[in-house]
Design a protein that fits this description.
The complex is a heterodimer of chains A (about 375) and B (about 140). Chain A has about 375 residues and is of the alpha/beta class. Chain A has 14 helices and 10 strands. Classes of the chains: A alpha/beta (about 375), B alpha/beta (about 140). Chains A and B meet through helix 9, helix 11, helix 12 and helix 14 of A and helix 2, helix 3 and strand 4 of B.
Chain lengths: ~375, ~140
């Protein structure tokens, strides 16, 4: 079921809040995870269960502090038939949720995936200043769609995002390519999604050509931008010499790993005792080259993380936002993960059915590997 | 580096290549002593971190020996190692690092000759290539 939804009072965000209220009141959802304003006026997330308390919800807020798939992994680790939580999330967040479901870190049965178009977000830090005192900022942002493709103030991950519309969802709420002061686009892909639209006044129709074109155009412009950025990146990063330099400021804080939505181990073995050395071992290693960098093995950490996570990386770029020494991780991971996923004809978060590349195999593939 | 001798760290599957190496030894086949063997229970058990650590700390090459496709003692470990190798090569390539310092080869317990030949070939390859760029690099 798909079609347009009338927007009241030129307030698309208010219309979405109206849907939330309805779903909570009619007990179709027991709670909704949605973007919300923090007390200081920047981006956070809220789990809203009382329809009277929806004022905090800011479903169209163009700012992102965490990839909320991390939150989903925290709340939906076990299946629970009694709860029914709607996840009102952006494309990269839902793609990460899909990866986590396949990694058995998120149990799908109590979740309803409600996607929303996302043309890009600002970093949560500093968003207060971007927004200023404009209470209607979020609606304005979706209204002024022309700037989406070239907004250089967006998070780097967003500037390279080619999936402004979620790939896997039960229900999607869209506004790209429409006049969001008048209407929103809703699309139910599953029975769970259809159940949410029951009784909602939807003008059923095919996806407007203008919307399709706007999405394709945004995606194409982003891809071209990404290609340019990867060219620049290669100049700064390719080869052992430059690569070591690229990561040479790393503090070993592991923020990039901690905020990564798909890096799922409960305890990373880089945080475990596996690689701990005592002082005499450190000296022994140092003697080999005469001098070792401290903190040690930071490049090993990054290279290993790439080998472990690149097939599931959703390229959200939240790692770069969290890096205290501003290492350009978003573009790097975009390149490395794109290539890695292409090798297995896989796209992270594209489908729940596609098996994870490292959990499956075919006998008759990659026949040259191991032979020459 | 006139006196350069490549150092190779070898991860040999207990059920095939390790026995193949044993056979090469008991059959008194000659091959260069450049590889340090580490016995593992399956080529599928070798995480990329061990390959990377060896390379970053100055090994000139890493060798992995597993059972021929279809012969894995644990049914599918070598197929998984093969996929992991594809991923490893892709990551190395994306970063502009040489992936031909890491070799994966299928060598059965009966293939002592193949084992000796492969190690000879790899040693010669690395001799021609020269030392690993990470050997003297302290910043990694």
């Amino acid at each position: 079921m798909k079609g347009t939804l009338k927007v009241d009072a030129k307030d698309p965000e208010g219309t979405i809040r109206g849907l939330f209220a309805r779903w909570l009141k009619e007990d179709r959802l027991s709670a909704i995870l949605t973007p919300a304003y923090s007390a200081s006026g920047t981006a956070t997330m809220a789990l809203v269960s009382n329809p009277e308390k929806l004022a905090a919800a800011a479903p169209l807020m163009p700012a992102m502090g965490v990839n909320s798939a991390s939150i989903v992994a925290e709340i939906a680790r076990e299946s629970s038939p009694n709860a029914k939580v709607g996840l009102f999330l952006r494309s990269c967040e839902l793609r990460a949720v899909v990866e986590l479901m396949k990694l058995k870190q998120v149990m799908p049965d109590s979740l309803v995936l409600i996607g929303v178009d996302c043309p890009g977000t600002y970093k949560a830090a500093g968003f207060r200043n971007v927004r200023g005192k404009d209470a209607d900022f979020d609606n304005k942002h979706v209204r002024e769609q022309l700037g989406f493709a070239g907004n250089v103030d967006f998070r780097m991950g967003c500037q390279m995002c080619e999936y402004p519309k979620p790939l896997v969802y039960d229900l999607n709420v869209g506004f790209i390519g429409l006049d969001p002061d008048k209407e929103l686009w809703v699309e139910a892909a599953t029975d769970k999604g259809k159940a949410l639209l029951e009784g909602v006044e939807v003008n059923e129709s095919e996806e407007p050509a203008g919307r399709k074109a706007a999405l394709a155009d945004l995606s194409a412009k982003r891809k071209a931008g990404t290609a340019r950025r990867i060219e620049e990146l290669d100049k700064a990063m390719l080869g052992p010499e430059k690569l070591a330099q690229y990561f040479s400021d790393c503090l070993n804080c592991h923020n990039c790993m901690n905020v990564c939505p798909v890096c799922y181990c409960r305890e990373c073995f880089f945080d475990s005792d596996t690689f701990q050395r005592d002082i005499s071992e450190h000296v022994r290693v140092s003697l080999r080259k005469g001098v070792t960098r401290m903190p040690s093995e930071t490049l090993l950490f990054h290279l290993t993380r790439m080998n472990h996570m690149m097939t599931s990386c959703v390229q959200c770029g939240i790692c770069e936002d969290s890096c205290p020494v501003t290492i350009g991780l978003a573009t790097l991971f975009k390149k490395v993960s794109q290539n890695a996923q292409q090798a297995f004809e896989y796209v992270s978060g594209r489908s729940l059915e596609e098996p994870l590349p490292l959990t499956t195999f075919r006998e008759t593939e990659f026949l040259k590997v191991g032979e020459e | 580096m006139a006196d350069y001798e490549p150092k190779i760290v070898g991860f040999l599957c207990n059920w095939c290549t390790y026995a193949g190496a044993d056979l090469a030894g008991t059959s008194r086949m000659q091959y260069p002593p450049n590889m340090r063997p580490i016995r593992v229970m399956c080529s599928g058990a070798v995480d990329s971190v061990y390959i990377l650590r060896a390379l970053l700390e100055g090994a000139d090459g890493v060798f992995m020996g597993g059972c021929h496709p279809g012969d894995c003692h644990y049914v599918s470990g070598n197929y998984k190692a093969r996929r992991r190798m594809v991923l490893f090569n892709s990551v190395m390539q994306s970063l502009g690092l040489e992936s031909d310092r890491v070799w994966l080869r299928w060598i059965s317990a009966a293939e002592g000759r193949k084992f000796a030949d492969t190690i000879t070939e790899m040693t010669e390859h690395l001799q021609k290539k020269g030392p690993s760029p990470f050997k003297e690099k302290w910043e990694v």
